[in-house]
Structures are given as structure tokens and as C-alpha cells.
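Researcher: Next entry: Peptidase S8/S53 domain-containing protein (Carbonactinospora thermoautotrophica).
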Amino acid sequence: MRSRVTAAVTMVVTAALVMTGFAPAATAPDPRPAPAGTPPLTVTLVTGDRVTAARTAHGVQVLGVDPGPGRDHVMFTRARLGDHEHVYPADALPLVEAARLDRRLFDVTGLVEQGYDDASRADLPLIIQHARQARTLPYGTQLTATFGRLGMSAVSVRKRDTGGVWRQLTGGPYALYRGDNVAAVWLDGQVRATLDESVRQIGADRAHVAGVTGAGVPVAVLDTGYDPGHPDLAEAVVGSKDFTTDGTVADGHGHGTHVASIVAGRGTASGGQYTGVAPGAKLLVGKVLTRQGTGRESWVLAGMEWAVTAGARIVNMSLGGPPT
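Model: Predicted structure:
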């Protein structure tokens, strides 16, 4: 899940260390006060350290760091990458640079924007990449999903337990630098619907005239679900499953129905005028985004596994999120 720009970003972060290192709040001067009228907020990192920040007209501003229990000796680095503020504990930075640890876990701005600050939720969702055939998890993590084909697990860690989990990830059998049980840890970040316009003028009508309609080809659409009552999809969908917290594959957003219709809509409601790109395809609809149009990466992974197991030859995901 590491992007191609990670190496360049790492160089920027490393360069920033020279000027932005600061001591723990316990030994440093009092954090800067939050701007007038802006209540401070806190963000607990995967290391158990708690960052104090505030929303300003220029984005999220880091005010200080309260080290986790037994971590008063740890130094911290503050780096600004674009308009995002990052805080890296000294014992985490080498693991970030080695691609063992997701840098988004220390992107304070990103965590706040995704609703992972302490006021918004009491746990931190993670995705763990297992090493080899290992499937055990550090104590203090709650399993939420497994992805056997990918060798991954989605877990939730109560923020009050992050310090204990971090100690296991930096020492003992689960240590990331050893890679015996846990190979890497990522944030289970938010994803969102991104496609809001139909594909234009791709020549699909000429393909239909030539008899190319995708007849019988299983195509999975992982999105916000679909409208089971839509006449264009009534005969197209042959399987569906919900991976969200909505509890239904019904589309309360509209994006998934739109995308599914683009892919394989039969054109029934419009007398054939708005036929999809492959009107003969068989649709497998996996709901990985809620009625708000957002979801978790672990839901997307679960949908991908389901789609492959169900026989999909093509998987469409018109969604996106921050670089991983």
C-alpha cells in the first residue's frame, strides 16, 4: 500500500527533522495557546502519545505533545508536508522510512479530517500485514475482519491501549523490525466516492452494434450499493453483499447505482437511450461505502476478496482516499 512518492516524501520528512524536532511536553515549554475562539483537540497516535492541536484558518495546527506512559524520554519531530501537519516520535520514524509503518498514522491533519481525533472516536482502526503464514495478533487489538488471500487483518485498538500495543510492535515476537509475525501496520483510512460524471464518448455504442456487450462477463462494482428497484439493474445484478455498517446493500447515496448503471445498465427505463457500457455483463455489487459516500479501506479489501471469490473478472472501484 506504499505509494510511488513515498521515497520522495521520506526525503522531505528527513530534511524537516533538522528544524522541527521538539522535546516532550513534560520537559518543553508550555504548548502554544490555541487561536482565540478555537477549542483545542487531541489526537492519540498509534504509539500512545497524545498530540494537542487546533483548527485554524490555515488548517490544523499542532500545539504540543503529551508522551504516553514511560515515554518521557522520547523526542518528537514536527513536519509540515503541503498543508498537513505530521508528528513523528523518534522510535517510529525509522519504521516509517522502512515502509513498516504507515506515515498516515502520524499525519495529525489527516487523522482529524478523517474523524480519528479523540473527541470523534475512542479507538484507532488499523490494517495489519502478517508475515509469512503468521496470523496471531498483538494483545490489545480487536479483530474486525480478515483477508486470507492478502495475508492481512483489520483490527481496532482502543486508544487507551495504544501504548501497550506499540510496546509489542517495537519489542518481542511482534516487533516490526523483526518481521516474524507482523510485517507492516497501516491506518485503516477513510475512502470516499469520487466519480460523479458518466464516461463520455468511449465508442461503446459502436461496440454494441458489433455485438460486443460483455455478455455473461461477471463484473463487480464496489461502491455505495445499488437500488434493487431500478429497472436498469433489476436483471443485471446476480449477487450482492454489504460490508459497511449500514446493514443493507440498498443505495442511500446514489453513487453506486449511478456507477453500476454506467457499467451494465440495461437501458430499460429510457427505452435503450441510456444503456451502460457493457449491458450484457453480470453485476456483483459489493457495498463498501455508506450512505454518506465514505467507508474504510478494510471494507474495500473485504469487498475485493468477496468479488474474486464470487468469480468477478473485472472489479470497478470508483472511489479514492489519501495516498497510502
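Model: Note for the record: The longest strand covers residues 59-66.
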